[in-house]
Write a structure and sequence with these properties.
heterotrimer, A mainly alpha (about 325), B alpha/beta (about 260), C alpha/beta (about 625), A: about 325 residues, mainly alpha, ABC transporter involved in vitamin B12 uptake, BtuC, two-stranded antiparallel ribbon, 15 helices, about 75% helix, about 0% strand, globular, C: about 625 residues, alpha/beta, Rossmann fold, seven-stranded mixed sheet, 22 helices
Chain lengths: ~325, ~260, ~625
């Protein structure tokens, strides 16, 4: 009797204390279900496919999560991804890949800072600000590039380093397609998770999102925190653009369109609150994986479907369910 | 007839606000207010809505600057231009909903803005363990018992939350503690608890100013009370001098500045 | 609040500035409300026999026909077309044929011609079975081959020549029948004196089917003589027959003989092919319409397409490039040609080469055609995208009273009035690049030079079928976009028609990683898929990544895509992509000028409302040229 009681409380404790436990359980649950019921799901090609499908969004979701925890949104990440892709790709094609790398990171971070500055100086909600800058940045990109698509057939070594095949793992698993971006992504996830949960800045991010007034009252520089989070969001979008170009050797002005909402969805499914103040980077990654897993599952199930809209609907439903589930877990105390 | 025996404070008081006037555009919120408080004094600040209590407090907290007048702290004239400066002097405020971040743990809240760090190599990290320990200990010293410092503040009761905010102020060496309506929305038992922590703070020689509507609470813990009406300071009195009804009259009655 | 307002105003200003800059990267100073005009003038009515831009050599084309003008007058207009084109385009030609109708000898001539390794070969595919090997040998030797006057197109004939210039015979018969029914016919007869001619048989078949589909009666009547007696007998036996179509000039003669002797009442007649006799009968009202295949156009276009292929790798878009049927009535029949008439053309576009590089390619096509045909050409366009200005330019062009006008139908509501004014003034109008065709646009211009998405998808699908696909998928990266949806529909329709399973896979186009994984999953779930159509780089790039990741070998699948790109060219060379479909903007410009001039000088009417320039297939055969010329001529 007492033993079972303590198990229950332990279980409950894990779920209420850890923000990752819920999403992780959902991920695991869906994985198991799909492995059992969908043929060919449990194969390395599919699994690495799911991981790869999550990389670009996952990178953006890292920055988006941090920003959402601070209580803001960034809808311009898709445009910034394109900007990063053009800067890196363009300069790499011109023979200056490292400069391109640097510029892609710096410029997108700066554009993110601009988002933050507009927010703190005007007080307009970030949703609106970044809705505007999304079109502004894409418009600028359109004008500067004259709408030209960037494409290369040269396979520079830097592309391979960034997003080439991870042969080290692939050799062990048949048909696997692990890519180097996985490593980079893990590094970034770990880095930002540590920043979020183990540094003073991270503490401030949670405070600003949870109760900006209280944070301000305690001497936290709310404006600086938000601007920094926007910079991080922009930076991650730039990284995503770099990874995009490294694997597909192409970037267009329209690249990244829709990534903003996808990243927000990943963050929410991963346990981040829309209202701010709570969330985790791991959760965002898990959220991205859950969504990709569902997409793959639906395709593999081979339901006779009319255009894409069908499986998008299933993904949409799951996002809502996952968010409800996470909320429920959080409130059970 | 009311026996008015005012308590006099001056520049040698812990806090002395002299002839403070605050205008917002054409509206005069405060007119030549004189307000002072000593160490170890628990003062209730009374007044009807719009009388100017919050404005006075905000000036002390550095949120507003007076249009004219001078503030003295520990005998020296000071300019308080921001909450940060107020905190540096030793003035801490505890607002009801703006004191703590509900989603964060007690220790993170406790050290918010003043986090403890330990360096691993060149990089500073949060010293979570130390923070938790100190948090629990100092709250204990005040008389506040918490189960675990990593528990989310949001899962605590209203009274517990207030107490943590108070404990934080005390720990970080506040000399003046300002509480805004600390006991409204609390149950009787909780109110008692909070009032006991205020007592504890007083016993550590802090000055405590709390804004309240509840005259009864004045009687429970305040040494004295200041009544403000329509931007004017009616006066500061020892408790016990006036009956509750008299106080009510003071708050609402007509009175020229 | 004040700060907020200032920032808002600044933001608004920036946005306005940006949208103003959208189409013009360079600031243009504009003196008045008049739009900026681009002038491209060609002087002289004399056709300048200059070699095509970009090539210094003179090409030699050989034409092998089943009959020659010298003994078969019906070929004279055709040979005239060949010679005219050759002179204008600066190519050497040789026309070969037997001394009398002899299929075997014609086949031998094809071998002979091919052995001499000409730069291009044109021929009549009178007997596809007999000619197949000879033609195949020529194609395999790298000689571009084009068919005219006889044939059914590369797909039906199963020989991979460029295109068949002529008519879809059964369609022509069907259209004739439709016109007769419209005129009140209830029982039709198709008079055929060309026994064994597949074209004649097809014409009658189409004719009969149209009648029977509408629950009327119709049949074919074989005649052997030209005296009309067999027809007279038929009408005696079938008093209710009231409509006749004659498959050729000789059967027309037979019919006219019958008419002259029996003088029947209320018999409506349509004649295939035109000569002076038919012309006068049409003028007299005996014959409602004469159907013209426009053999001059066949000959002219044969040279034109061979040269375009040699110079730019441009391919005719459709398996059958229709030169007919064109229905000539009393007004339009027998109009004399004016080959040396000086011609002035004005083109009106909604964008210009100066700020949109796509239009530079179109313009090059126009200029070359103008230069070859010796016509004066002016191109007008606004200095930034502005529909109102463009409409005003159309009016301006019309007021200048040129011999012909080419224009874009960017907005078929806004442009309708100015275009109608021009048409009503009697100026021939051809449209290009943007438009839906005269029927859908509701404006009766001659033809539209451009491509339709559905058609491109359809013929892309048919080509994939001919390459042996057994299960196809169309990867649509933007479901809901009507153009892309149409491409996929065309593709799946084509495959389904041929009994091959095909479906559409919708993917999220802007997340390349997700697209790749979705394609990979689809392949995992349907491993028998071997035909993939992507609609542009959004789909093709992830597709290539998928191929690389999955390790599929070239040859184990067929991939096709739209739009030329560097990676597409690479993939074609490596065998990962079988063909890419291009809208061939050069041909858009070239064709518009060409069709206007042919109309003005030779009264040749485009046979179809839409003159397709796409799908222009880019495959191993022309990928090198295309790569070299991308952005300039392609």
């Amino acid at each position: 009797m007492r033993a079972s009681g303590s198990w229950k409380t332990k279980f409950r404790h894990i779920f209420s204390e850890s923000t990752v436990a819920g999403p992780l359980a959902v991920l695991f649950g869906i994985f198991v279900l799909l492995s059992i019921f969908v043929p060919k799901f449990f194969s390395f090609r599919s699994i690495t496919g799911i991981i790869n499908a999550s990389t670009l969004t996952g990178a953006i979701a890292i920055g988006m999560t941090m920003l959402m925890i601070s209580g803001e949104f960034d809808l311009s990440v898709g445009a910034l991804m394109a900007v990063g892709g053009y800067l890196f790709g363009g300069l790499a094609m011109a023979g200056q890949p490292l400069l391109g790398l640097l510029l892609a990171l710096v410029v997108t971070a700066l554009l993110g800072v601009i988002n933050g500055v507009i927010l703190v100086s005007t007080g307009i909600p970030s949703f609106i600000v970044t809705l505007g800058t999304k079109y502004l940045y894409r418009g600028l990109l359109w004008v500067i590039t004259a709408g030209t698509m960037l494409q290369t057939v040269d396979r520079l070594p830097i592309y391979n380093i960034l997003n080439g095949r991870l042969e080290f793992l692939n050799q062990f698993f048949k048909q696997a397609n692990f890519r180097n971006s996985l490593i980079w992504l893990m590094v970034l996830v770990i880095l930002f998770q540590i920043i979020l949960s183990r540094t003073r800045f991270g503490n401030h991010v949670f405070a600003v999102g949870g109760n900006a007034g209280a944070a301000l009252g305690q001497g936290v520089n709310v404006r600086k925190v938000k601007i920094l989070c926007f910079a991080i969001s922009g930076l991650m979008a730039g990284i995503s653009g770099i990874l995009l170009f490294s694997q597909y050797y192409t970037v267009r002005v329209a690249s990244g369109d829709g990534m903003d909402l996808y990243a927000i969805a990943a963050a929410v499914v991963g346990g981040t609150l829309i209202t701010g103040g709570a969330g985790s980077i791991w959760g965002a990654l898990i959220g991205a994986l859950i969504i990709s897993m569902l997409r793959s599952g639906v395709v593999l199930m081979n339901i006779s479907f009319i255009p894409a809209d069908n499986f998008e609907a299933i993904v949409g439903v799951t996002i809502i369910l996952a968010a409800i589930f996470n909320n429920y877990l959080r409130n059970r105390n | 007839m009311m026996a008015e025996k005012k308590i006099e404070h001056g520049r040698n008081s812990l806090v002395w606000m002299e002839n403070i006037t605050k205008k917002f555009g054409t509206i005069t919120a405060l007119q030549d207010i004189n307000f002072g408080i000593e160490k170890g004094e628990v003062r209730a600040l009374l007044g009807d809505n719009g009388a100017g209590k919050s404005t006075l407090i905000k000036i002390l907290m550095g949120v507003h600057t007076p249009s004219s007048g001078q503030i003295y702290f520990e005998g020296k004239p000071v300019q308080i231009n921001s909450p940060k400066e107020a905190r540096e002097i030793g003035i801490e405020a505890v607002y009801q909903d703006l004191a703590l971040v509900n989603l964060m743990s007690i220790s993170r809240n406790f050290f918010l803005g003043r986090e403890m760090e330990k360096k691993i190599g060149p990089i500073p990290f949060l010293d979570l363990r130390n923070m938790e320990e100190i948090c629990r200990n100092s709250l204990h010293d005040i008389g506040i018992e918490i189960r675990s410092a990593s528990e989310r503040v949001g899962s605590l009761s209203g009274g517990e939350r207030q107490s943590i905010a108070i404990g934080r102020g005390v720990y970080f060496g506040a000399k003046v503690l300002i509480l805004d309506e600390p006991t409204s929305a609390l149950s009787v038992a909780e109110t008692r608890k909070v009032l006991s922590y205020i007592e504890n703070a007083r016993s550590r020689n802090l000055a405590v100013i709390f804004i309240t509507h509840n005259v009864h609470h004045v009687y429970m813990v305040a040494d004295s009370y200041t009544v403000i009406r329509q931007g004017c300071c009616v006066g500061t009195y020892f408790k016990g001098e006036l009956s509750e009804d008299d106080i009510a009259d003071l708050i609402t009655g007509d009175r020229e500045c | 609040m004040k700060k907020l307002n200032i920032v808002l105003v600044l933001l608004a200003l920036v946005c306005v500035l940006l949208s103003a800059c959208q189409a013009t990267p360079a600031a243009s100073t504009e003196p008045a409300a008049e739009a900026n005009a681009e002038q491209s003038a060609e002087n002289g009515a004399e056709p300048i026999p200059a070699a095509a831009e970009g090539s210094n050599q003179t090409f030699k084309f050989v034409f092998v026909q089943h009959s020659l003008c010298t003994w078969d007058p019906s070929m004279c207009a055709l040979e005239d077309g060949i010679k005219t084109a050759a002179k204008q385009m600066g190519v050497e030609i040789e026309i070969l044929g037997p001394e009398k109708y002899d299929i075997d000898q014609t086949a031998a001539l094809i071998d002979q011609a091919a052995a001499a390794k000409p730069d291009g070969l044109g021929l009549t595919v009178t007997d596809p079975a007999k000619f197949k090997n000879s033609i195949k040998k020529a194609i395999d030797a790298g000689i571009p081959v084009i068919a005219y006057a006889a044939g059914s197109g590369p797909l039906v004939d199963d020989i991979a020549y460029l295109t068949y210039l002529g008519m879809d015979e059964s369609q022509a018969g069907a259209q004739a029948a439709a016109k007769l029914i419209e005129a009140g016919a209830k029982k039709g007869v198709c008079v055929n004196d060309q026994v064994g001619s597949t074209a004649a048989i097809a014409r009658c078949a189409g004719f009969v089917k149209t009648f029977t589909d509408k629950n009327f009666k119709a049949e074919a009547l074989e005649v052997k003589s030209q005296d009309g007696k067999e027809i007279a007998d038929y009408f005696a036996a079938n008093a209710d027959a009231d409509a006749v179509v004659t498959v050729g000039l000789s059967s027309a003669k037979a019919f006219y003989a019958f008419v002259d002797s029996a003088k029947p009442a209320g018999v409506k007649h349509i004649a295939f092919d035109v000569d002076s006799d038919v012309e006068s009968r049409v003028k007299d009202g005996v014959t409602l319409f004469a159907i013209d295949q426009q053999p001059f156009m066949q000959g002219y276009n044969a040279v034109m397409y061979l040269l375009l292929d040699k110079n730019y790798g441009i391919k005719p878009a459709l398996p059958i490039t229709a030169t007919g049927p064109v229905f000539l009535d009393a007004k339009s029949v027998g109009v004399a040609a004016q080959p040396d008439k000086p011609v002035t053309l004005i083109m009106v576009q909604h964008a210009m080469c100066a700020y949109d590089p796509y239009w530079c390619v179109v313009q090059k096509g126009m200029e070359e055609a103008a230069q070859q045909m010796g016509v004066k050409l002016t191109i007008l366009g606004p200095d930034k995208f502005d529909l109102e200005k463009t409409a005003a330019l159309i009016d301006q062009a019309g007021a200048a009273k040129p011999d012909g006008i080419g224009l874009v139908v960017t907005d078929n509501v806004l442009f309708k009035t100015p275009i109608m004014k021009v048409i009503d003034a009697g100026i021939p109008v051809a449209t290009y690049d943007t438009g839906l065709g005269p029927e859908q646009d509701g404006i009766p211009y001659m033809t539209f030079w451009g491509s339709e998405d559905y058609v491109q998808g359809y013929y892309g699908g048919l080509r994939m079928v001919s390459e042996g696909v057994s299960r196809g998928v169309c990867i649509n990266h933007q479901v809901g976009h009507s153009g892309l949806d149409a491409r996929c529909k065309g593709f799946t329709d084509a495959l389904t028609e041929k009994g091959i399973p095909a479906e559409v896979l919708g993917v999220k186009g802007e997340d390349a990683a997700q697209v790749q994984t979705t394609i990979s999953d689809y392949y995992t779930a349907n491993s028998d898929v071997d035909g993939y159509l992507t609609l542009g780089p959004s789909g093709s790039e992830p597709f290539y990544a998928f191929v690389e990741a999955t390790g599929l070998e070239p040859g184990s699948f067929i991939h096709a895509s739209f739009d030329i790109s560097a990676s597409g060219v690479k993939a074609i060379k490596e065998g990962n992509t079988s063909f890419v479909m291009d809208a061939q903007p050069y041909l858009i410009g070239y064709g518009t000028v060409e069709s206007l001039v042919l109309k003005i000088r030779y009264n040749i009417t485009p046979a179809t409302g839409i003159s397709a320039t796409g799908p222009g297939f880019v495959d191993k055969s022309n990928v090198e040229i295309v790569e070299k010329l991308a952005g300039t001529y392609r």
